[in-house]
Amino acid sequence: MTKKTAYSKFAKAAAHFCGQPRVFSLAVAIIVVWIVTGPMFHFSDTWQLVINTGTTIITFLMVFLIQNTQNRDTEAIQLKLDELIRATQGAHNMLLDLEELEQEQLDAFKLKYQALAEMARKSLLAGQSDTDTPEA
Questions:
Q1: Do 53 and 15 share a structural domain?
Q2: Number of domains comprising the chain
Q3: Model confidence pLDDT, tens digit, residues 98-131
Q4: Distance (Å, whole) CA 117 – CA 114
């Protein structure tokens, strides 16, 4: 296995931490405190600037952390699906690594599988089985 980078470790830990209910509760509490303090600061521009700046900074940073987590999870899922395809007798190995194809190629595969699904639905309506194995 490869060594995890410091950013990868940090991103995973931060995403895990921020996804906990207590962190959400803390965020709600901060908003409530900010709202309650509005009258004390006469709803001033500075009062508004505090929450706007804070939420903008947090949102900006969280986008990168979420994207890192999403990329890692998506890649892991794709690899697992590739392994299932590879290990399934009769499955088309050409379907491995589809996520690397161009949109036009993906659309062609999608049309083929939509046609197969339509034929399976017609088979079911005709009282036949909708199960099949890939053609050789």
A1: yes
A2: 2
A3: 888 899 999 998 999 899 889 889 988 999 887 7
A4: 5
